[in-house]
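During the reporting period the student researcher (J.K.) took over the structure-prediction task from the postdoctoral fellow and processed the backlog of single-chain submissions. One of the processed entries is reproduced below for the supervisory committee.
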Amino acid sequence: MNLTAVEAAADDLAVLDDPIEQQGSTRWETAPGGRRIAETSLVLGGMHCAACAGIIEAALSDVSGVERAEVSAAGQRAQVRWDPARTRLSALVQAIRGAGYEAVPDAAAPARLLRQRERRLALWRLFVASFCAMQIMMFATPSYVSRGGDLAPDLKQLLDWGSWLLTMPVLLFSAGPFFQGAWRALRQRRMGMDVPVALGIAVSFVASSGATFDPGGAFGHEVYFDSLAMFVSFLLGARLLEMLTRHRAAESLESAFATLPDTARRVVADGVVETVSVQRLRPGDQVLVPLGESFPADGRLEVGATQVDESLLTGESLPVARQVGDEVVGGSVNLGAPVRMRVERVGADTRHGGIVSLMRQALTQRPALVRQADAWAGPFLWAVLVLAAAAAVAWTWIEPSRAIGVAVAVLIVTCPCALSLAVPSAMVAAAGALARRGVMLQRLDALEALAGMRRLFIDKTGTLTEDQASWVDTQLVDGQGRPVGDVVPPSLVAAAIALARSSGHPLARALAMAAHTTGAPVIWQQVNEVAGQGLQARDDQGRSWRLGSWSWVRGGSAGGTPETELPCVWFAAEGAELVLRFDFDERLRADAAEAVGALLQDGVAVTLLSGDQPQRARRLAARLGIADVRAGATPESKLAAVASAQASGERVGMVGDGVNDAPVLAQADVSMAMGRGAMVARLHADAVLVSNRLGEVVAARRLAQRMGRVMRQNLAWAAAYNLACVPLALAGWLPPWAAGLGMACSSLLVVGNSLRLARI
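J.K. obtained the following structure tokens:
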């Protein structure tokens, strides 16, 4: 490498240490003692099997300052927790490159470039191997079709020499990944799946070269150049298709979350607008967001009202209205009018960044089933080597000329690629499908628990119901709160609604959202709000009105508050005999009844677990058809209820949203938190319902069950393939090229079967 190339590589690594450049792929947290700890997600290149993950993890663990490294072969990602006081991000990437792999920060642009380079090189390797294999087959054809002495020995040797020359590009270039992978595994004292493949290629080439240059020697006169070239072509073709499948999944995930703009229009002194990188925005900045563009960060509207499309973040297909003071989410699209917003959260702290972080964590995990498959792969590969050696020895006594071919076929056909892909490919496909529906997994193991869930505990407020109450009834009552049966004047209702718009109280907001156009608009004067009591204002005639609690509206002269079944708000003029009562009820989520019904139909026992009053909890449960209600529950009693169900042998799920739900979410076998719930609840959950739709719980469980079936099919196929083909290879009925084709088709079948899960 010349000096310029060395300097360019050094500059490329130095850029990684720029804090601005790290924002898209690194999250920061404060550890005990005030230490800053970084957690970076990296996209990897050059991985082909589960053993590669262990090699990269070992290389990262050797870097001083790395506290934890998790690598996923299926997701092609690494999640590294490191101490910036002891190491740098460039050192982590350098360690991965030193192990023979590529790595770039998990941001869209560098990841796309890495995929392009990987595809281009894979296509060239496949082209060279396939082209040479066709030419080698032409040279080998006379040996197959000739009879007796039709083919002169010197002519056959000339054709073998030509095959040898054409095999060299296949060996030195196309088969490079197999030899590199085998060398990396052996250097780390690990047994990877590239080891038997590389060994089979090397043995075939050495034996065929000996037969070419010394036909009467120890290797005999049989050559396997055609089998070698075809095997490499088949395997490279399978790996290319598998890689393209992974790339499509990564690109679809990126397109789903690459909604943040690259630049923002920041308002600086004197109203001057400058265009800056989104990475340079800071909390407190004011930015202009034109019509049709995405919001660059989380914040609040300061000037203008608009409608916002949040479908890519929440799954909500309809635009939502946003007024001055309302929160807007980075990545959502401005559909109404140009607005100005004040930035509150940027980078990884935004809701968009949190969602992406959830998926990164999920894709870098190695679930228990994957770890078990990896554990089986090592002993299995050693057994393969022993079996191939035994086959070679046995055939040396039976028919020495076929010993090498049989040993190579055994090495190739037993390579457990399909076994290593059976579980992770299905899990990654399922996780991607759920992400597109707004279900972000934080733990891939949760899918297995979700499939076997038999009881689901559901919180009430904020989970089954919306955060906002709904106005359900209006009545006129007398001084003791008894209904009088008179017709409610529409103008009086309109006046109360107009006054309610001056308050931020949840019940006042629910009343203010009601559409009411009867009568002339009321213009209130001297509006005053007393915390915990209500609103007071004067109409255009100077008369005083109050909206709020019973004691507030009655001026404190009445007795106790009348008993009501539902929460209510009172409205009356000062000194009036009649009072207007507005009743409110919890608003069920749009799909709550359908979701609960589907769960019950699927055989899942549903329990309403709420800290609310028993009467309210039972009334809501009756509306949903839930028979088991645990009301007035404290965090401790909720935890005890879940633990009791688990002790009875049930696999338990939990859906919640509040701070008090966090211990229960952590205790349950599988847990989901609402996307707009408390942060601590989302942190303790196995998955987050970004869409806030309960129907996704049903869809996720059914997909998890499908995933279990697909994994069992994949494992059954991998086992059946080896049970059928190994005896054929040992018997000498399976030539090396056919063994390569079978292994490639086996891996493709497993990946293709898993991809069916993506069509949810």
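The committee noted the following: Residues 108-145 form the longest helix (38 residues).
J.K. will present the remaining backlog at the next meeting.
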